[in-house]
Amino acid sequence: MQTHPANAPKPSWRVNGDAARELLADPATTATTLLILVCRALEQDIPPGVTPLELLLGNPEKQIDPMDPVEMWMDVERFYNARITEAGENRV
Q1: 21, 54, 86, 89: which one has the fewest Cβ atoms less than 10 Å from its Cβ?
Q2: In angstroms, rounded to a whole number, what is the distance separating the alpha carbons of residues 28 and 85?
Q3: Nearest 5°: CA angle at 91, between 89 and 92?
Q4: Where does 1-92 have alpha helices with state H?
Q5: Is the entire prediction scored with pTM above 0.85?
Q6: Is 55 in contact with 42 (CB distance < 8 Å)?
Q7: What sign results for the dihedral spanned by CA atoms 89, 91, 30, 59?
Q8: pLDDT tens digits for 48-78?
Q9: C-alpha span between 90 and 92 (Å, rounded)
Q10: Other C-beta atoms within 10 Å of 72: how many?
Q11: What CA–CA distances, in Å, run from 60 to 31, 35, 47, 66, 82?
């Protein structure tokens, strides 16, 4: 029996804090890497049945509004105790 992806256990991504801070501070960090770091930072706040991208981008079918970008970056900076570059913010 297969589990629907929305009901699957949430992954626990291990992210080295020092490496994450360096990546967030580097204006050349790719959008994919930044998105993974964002999802990891928000992982604990994701309700059951919601994917990280639904939390970030919203899902009208589930009545989920997109996350406020300012709030998102504040959460990410607080989680990693780091500042993200403006280029990185714009890239994501």
Answers
A1: 86
A2: 9
A3: 70
A4: 17-25, 31-42, 52-57, 69-80, 86-91
A5: no
A6: yes
A7: positive
A8: 888 888 888 899 999 989 989 899 899 899 9
A9: 6
A10: 18
A11: 24, 21, 16, 9, 32
Which amino acid is present at 3?
T
Backbone angles phi, psi at 18, to 5 degrees: -65, -45
Query: What's the CA gap between 34 and 47, in Å, rounded?
Result: 21
Cβ atoms < 10 Å from Cβ of 39: 20
Q: How far apart are CA 49 and CA 13, in angstroms?
A: 18
User: One-letter amino acid identity for 20?
Assistant: A
Name the maximum alpha-carbon separation found in the chain.
45
End-to-end CA distance of the chain: 36
